[in-house]
Amino acid sequence: MENKKENFSEWYSEIIDLAELSDRRYSIKGMNIWMPYGLKAIHAIDGVIRKALDSRGFSEVSFPLLIPRNQLEVEFEHFKGFEDQLFWVTRGGKDPLDVELALRPTSEVAMYPIFSLWIRSHANLPLKIYQIVNTYRHETKHTRPFIRVREIHFFEAHTAHESYEDAEKQLEEYDRTFVDISGKLLISYSRHRRPDWDKFPGARYSIAYDAIMPDGRVLQIGTIHQYGDNFSRTYGIEFTDEEGERKFVHQTTYGLSERLFAAIIAQHGDDKGLIFPPEIAPVQVVVVPIPPLGKGSSDFLSGVMEILSTYRVKLDDRDNYTPGYKYNDWEMRGVPFRIEIGMKEMQGNFVTLSRRTGGKRKIPVKNLRGEMEEEMKLMEETLMRRSRDFTESRTISSNSMDQVRDFNGVATVYWCGSKDCADRIEEHTGKSCLGEIMGDTTTGACIVCGKEGRLASFARSF
User: CA 20 to 30 Å from 19, out of 129, 238, 338, 363?
Assistant: First the structure.
């Protein structure tokens, strides 16, 4: 296997193939097959997202895939933002369609005409819904599984509120939600307010969650958008307030995608292969018998499997592979824990537990249930600490353009907010503006023009 630090791109492609997460050999570029192991992982990630949203009063929906052209063109700024990426259906059977239909690139235009029917009074607010669906964008750049694809496994939440202030509170809730989600996925990230020229089409402003990858580039893994009443005025989403006055709602959205999976693979994996966070591992514990086991082995193995039944546990009883091969295979697939059972374990009534993050220990069978709970917690703490340490190691603060250029990672500098200065930085360093760092209130002289600026991040991005 490729060395992850020396050649991340090759390592990433190789581990996706070896672990059978995705098959890229489908006949349409950028539309890949989710293999069983990868599909189990993304469904587990979906489960983490659902739990975080359901607990905050969101309801899941599922809107149709196709959007009529005339409906798309109602919101011109939004339409222009996606026009070059749309897939179109132009015929039904042999007959041309009266109205061309686009495959959704995202669902604002599909949902908001319906919102105008659902929302009548303040009693219908706030409206908080989400869906997990496939979206479609005609990517012309180099495609890569889970990072840049044409068929995207996508989560999107949409809300409507009585006031701009209520919508702002919703954005704060999104932030808390992502703290919960990232805490289960054990990935570190930074938050940036995207510059106006890079905000989502139709938004007042956009905030992005960015994760650093092993090659020093940044991957946008999530976004939240404040729409104000931009879309509600276009689509006539009005309500009657308590005084009987008609008003337009204020809206927000929250988007995540399979890029979360890419960040998990990249931040946690090593030269042996994947390392899955326990919460979303397709297999959390693999039990490997070491022959010869002798009489009573079936009962012993059954007892251990019963104790571990609350986890996603796999008994690897393949008789055509050696224990060593199995160890390497499951390590490559990122299983958090391996339990080895041989003759000495049976005779001593214990198991040998091996952590994917390193280290072994013997655990008496009678203590296994409680010890596994503690091991899961320790694994999560280890992976989260490693992810944060990695992100910190790939981030610098600087007032030198040359240092920003030469550093392989994210550079934070003071920036006045102008596009001219951002372009100057990019021309000199090859790094584009991610935006101002959310939560940082310090000011300093812009690295280009010397005017007062805020702390912002610059990096190469996917």
Answer: 363
Looking at the DSSP assignment, which residues form a beta bridge with residue 23? Answer: 33
Sheet containing 88-92, strands listed edge to edge, beginning at the edge strand earlier in sequence: 66-68, 95-103, 88-92
CATH class of the domain at 285-375: alpha beta
Bridge-partner residues for 246, per DSSP? 240
Above 70 in pLDDT, residue 311?
Answer: yes
Residue 256 token pair: 């995540």
Tokens of 119: 């929302």
Would you say 364 and 349 are in contact if contact means Cβ atoms under 8 Å apart?
yes
Return the pLDDT at 82. 84
Dihedral sign computed on CA atoms, order 166, 172, 174, 176: negative
pLDDT in tens, 70-114: 998 887 677 787 888 999 999 999 999 999 999 999 999 999 999
Quick one: angle between helices 297-307 and 368-393, nearest 10?
60
Q: What does the block give as tokens for 360?
A: 């072994």
User: What is the pLDDT averaged over residues 209-228?
Assistant: 98
DSSP for residue 310 = T
Q: Tell which residue, 392, 357, 351, has the closest CA to residue 377.
A: 357
Tokens 């340490």 found at = 389
Query: What whole-number distance in Å separates Cα of residue 13 and Cα of residue 22?
Result: 10
Residue 446: count of CB within 10 angstroms of its CB: 22
Is 8-268 in CATH node 2.40.50.180? no
Residue 252 contacts residue 207 (beta carbons within 8 Å): no
Peptide bond into 282 cis (omega under 30): no
pLDDT band, very low/low/confident/very high, at 5 (cuts 50, 70, 90):
confident
**R_g of the chain, CA atoms, integer Å:** 25
Q: Where are the domains of the chain?
A: 8-268, 285-375, 397-459
Q: Where are the strands (E) in 213-349, listed by range? A: 218-228, 238-240, 246-248, 250-257, 285-289, 313-315, 337-341
- Looking at 3.40.50.300, 1.10.10.10, 3.20.20.70, 3.30.110.30, the CATH number of the domain 397-459 comes to 3.30.110.30
Helices marked H in 83-193 — which ranges?
108-118, 164-185
CA 302, 303, 304, 306 dihedral sign is positive
Q: In the predicted model, is pLDDT for residue 1 greater than 80?
A: no
pLDDT value of position 76: 66
Mean pLDDT of the chain: 96
Q: CA nearest 112: which of 169, 53, 60, 159?
A: 159
- For residue 432, give both structure tokens: 């584009």
